[in-house]
Amino acid sequence: MIDLALPENKESKIKAEAIPLDIIYEDEYLVVVNKPADMIVHPAGKIRSGTLVNALLYHCQDSLSGIGGVIRPGIVHRLDKNTSGLMVAAKNDFAHLDLSRQIKDHQVTKKYIALVHGNLKDDSGIIDAQIGRSLKNRKKMA
């Protein structure tokens, strides 16, 4: 017997917005979206609209996980505002818990491809280092 206690869903105070989404994959458990650069993932501070969460609330209607709370429904991970790439959102609490566990247990691999302007010593390469907050601008990651 498996006993699973899920947190109570909280009603979202964030408004659904008809923002176009580039959906790569979707089923009853999750949705994978190609997030464009300059789109904020979830509302924060004074930003309450134009985010991926606003778009997902419109697209998924009532089928987003409530585990992320009222500000981050369905959000399992994030990408910085200036970063484009695939985002996975959970459509129910079971999927949210399982996806979170997979990320925590390093069963999910994140890969970043950077476009660089300027002259480089090599044509290509691999940077195998942690990403951290920029020392020059705390709002940016480097």
Summarize the structure.
Pfam families: PseudoU_synth_2. This protein has a three-stranded antiparallel beta sheet. It has a domain of 82 residues: Pseudouridine synthase, CATH 3.30.2350.10.
Give structural notes.
This protein is largely without helices or strands and 142 residues long. It has a domain at 23-104: 2-Layer Sandwich (Pseudouridine synthase). Helix content is 15%, strand content 11%. The chain has two helices and three strands. The chain has helices at 52-60, 93-104; strands at residues 23-26, 30-35, 85-90. Strands 1-2-3 form a three-stranded antiparallel beta sheet. The N and C termini lie far apart (46 Å). GO terms for molecular function: pseudouridine synthase activity; RNA binding. Residues 29-133 form the Pseudouridine synthase RsuA/RluA-like domain. It comes from marine sediment metagenome. Pfam families: PseudoU_synth_2.
The assembly state of the depicted protein chains is: single chain
Task: Catalogue the unreliable spans.
Answer: none
CATH topology (fold) name of the domain at 23-104: Pseudouridine synthase
Let me know the number of strands: 3
Strand content: 5-15%
Average pLDDT works out at 88
Q: Under the CATH scheme, which class of the domain at 23-104?
A: Alpha Beta
Largest sheet: 3 strands, antiparallel
Total number of helices? 2
CATH superfamily of the domain at 23-104: Pseudouridine synthase
Using only C-alpha atoms, the radius of gyration works out to: 17 Å
Mass-distribution shape: globular
> Could you state the order of secondary-structure elements as H and E?
EEHEH
- Order of strands across the widest beta sheet? 1-2-3
Domain Pseudouridine synthase RsuA/RluA-like: 29-133
Family: Belongs to the pseudouridine synthase RluA family.
Protein name: Pseudouridine synthase RsuA/RluA-like domain-containing protein
Keywords: Isomerase
